[in-house]
């Protein structure tokens, strides 16, 4: 069974801090790793990572995948209170697989003013 | 364009009643997922539809839960004889391809009294 583990489970920082969220997986093979941000309602898409070692960047957020060590990190620099949310990662199955994508349990990030 | 639409947004019902939750995916999306999220918890997979293939029902917690997807578009999740532990937010998501990123609806918050 595919397994996705996120750490830490929760994190409290102050505005301006930099945070690193971790997502490790035990999946035989997969097509892509996804990061989502969930505030009050629906998760919103952040990044899709398919290649190892290539950083994806969007403003203060960046993410990278390490297929050899089976993990991904999501970095947020100069955090703001609006970054407070649950951050979810998921792995998608390879083409032709009958599996559906697997989510981790998320990291609850709280940014204090 | 229109995103994933779920209705109702909130549903309060008495224990033992049946409920139907509706999901309108993004037009043209072939993959459709239902997830359940209890307060402070991660996403619990319920069921997955992909095109005309048989749905993956492996996440349905009991035989009181069922779902269908008519014409490859709208999906309905039905919970019969609701129990208090069914109280949660039910999220629907769709994807252009089974391995792609998911677009989530805002969810239905179900409360069983």
Explain how this protein is built.
The complex is a heterodimer of chains A (about 110) and B (about 110). With about 110 residues, chain A is mainly beta. In chain A, about 0% of the residues lie in helices and about 55% in strands. Chain A is built from no helices and eleven strands. In chain A, β7 (about 60-65) and β8 (about 70-75) form a beta hairpin. The radius of gyration of chain A is 14 Å and the shape is globular. With about 110 residues, chain B is mostly beta strands. Helices cover about 0% and strands about 45% of the residues of chain B. Chain B has strands at about 5, 10-15, 20-25, 30-35, 45-50, 65-70, 75-80, 90-95, 105, 110. In chain B, the strands form two sheets. In chain B, strands 2, 4, 5, 8, 9 and 10 form a six-stranded mixed β-sheet that branches. In chain B, strands 1-3-7-6 form a four-stranded antiparallel β-sheet, with no helix packed on it. The chains are: A mainly beta (about 110), B mainly beta (about 110). The interface of A and B includes residues 31, 32, 41, 44 and 103 of A.
* Most extensive interface between two protein chains, with residue counts: A-B, 25 and 21 residues
Largest sheet of chain A: 6 strands, mixed
Gross morphology of chain B: globular
- Terminal Cα separation of chain B, in Å? 37 Å
In short:
With 113 residues, chain A is mostly beta strands. Chain A is built from no helices and eleven strands. In chain B, the strands form two sheets. In chain B, strands 2, 4, 5, 8, 9 and 10 form a six-stranded mixed β-sheet that branches. In chain B, strands 1-3-7-6 form a four-stranded antiparallel β-sheet, with no helix packed on it.
């Amino acid at each position: 069974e595919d397994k996705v583990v996120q750490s830490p489970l929760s994190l409290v920082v102050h505005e301006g801090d930099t945070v690193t969220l971790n997502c490790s997986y035990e999946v035989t093979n997969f097509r892509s790793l996804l990061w989502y941000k969930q505030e009050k309602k629906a998760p919103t898409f952040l990044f899709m990572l398919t290649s190892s070692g290539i950083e994806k960047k969007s403003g203060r957020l960046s993410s990278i995948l390490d297929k050899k060590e089976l993990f991904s990190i999501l970095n947020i620099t100069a955090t703001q209170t609006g970054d407070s949310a649950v951050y979810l990662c998921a792995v998608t199955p390879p083409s032709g697989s009958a599996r559906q994508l697997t989510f981790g349990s998320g990291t609850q990030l709280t940014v204090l003013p | 364009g229109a995103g994933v639409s779920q209705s109702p947004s909130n549903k309060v019902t008495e224990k033992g009643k049946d409920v139907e939750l509706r999901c309108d995916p993004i037009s043209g999306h072939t993959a459709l997922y239902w997830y359940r999220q209890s307060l402070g918890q991660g996403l619990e997979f319920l069921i997955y539809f992909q095109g005309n293939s048989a749905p993956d029902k492996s996440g349905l917690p009991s035989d009181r839960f069922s779902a269908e997807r008519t014409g490859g578009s709208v999906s309905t999740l039905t919970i019969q004889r609701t129990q208090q532990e069914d109280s949660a937010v039910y999220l629907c998501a769709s994807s252009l391809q089974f391995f792609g990123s998911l677009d989530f609806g805002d969810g239905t918050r179900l409360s069983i009294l």
